[in-house]
Amino acid sequence: MAKRWRALALLVAGLCLLFLSTCSALPSLEHRQPAAKAVQLDGAHGPLSIAHSKAIIDALQARGGPGNTLARHLTIEETIVDSPLTTGNRVELLQNGPQTYQAMLGAIATARVHINMETYIFDDDEVGRQFAAALLAAQQRGVRVNLIRDSVGTLGTPSGFFQKMTSGGIAIVQFNPVNPLQAKAGWQVNQRDHRKLLIIDGRTAFLGGINISNVYSGSSLNLRHKAGRSGGG
Asked: Please, are residues 151 and 176 in contact by the beta-carbon 8 Å criterion?
């Protein structure tokens, strides 16, 4: 009986060797790096295509090595905004509130096509009413006026103040409304618009840290501390 089981075991072993000899070789295991994911950049109007993003990267590499920071920055600026950077521009430093407001109101008075304004604070005070009147006058003479205001920065400004401008044809957008039911997805109470911009006809731009409020109406050389709300933001 034992011999019969031994013979059967040898038969099974022989069949197994015959089966393995007819099989193809086992696949070899190689460590392969995952394919690099294509870089996709964001533009002014959303994500750029893979091809467009690649063109920017190629242009960066062509302009110089990692140390050429200015060239890399200029390439990104030009490509993403689809607008070449120009030379021959002039920059003027406005050093205090009165000088800045005078220049801004003067530019608004000369606008011919459009005015785009963005601010954190826009108070219903002497300065605020000056700007509101100037913007309304521009709108009435055919200039397209657009205003973005921050909902927290203008929280203390009466709604009727902005309603008067809206009734006069000015397009006003409230950045990230305080009421989450009026806001879009991703609402965060601390997501605020601290930009202060005034762009006239796409040719003259004012930027910096000045809001539209009496708080900024004094000279920077005036050392007296005025009472009132801080112009933070």
From this structure: yes
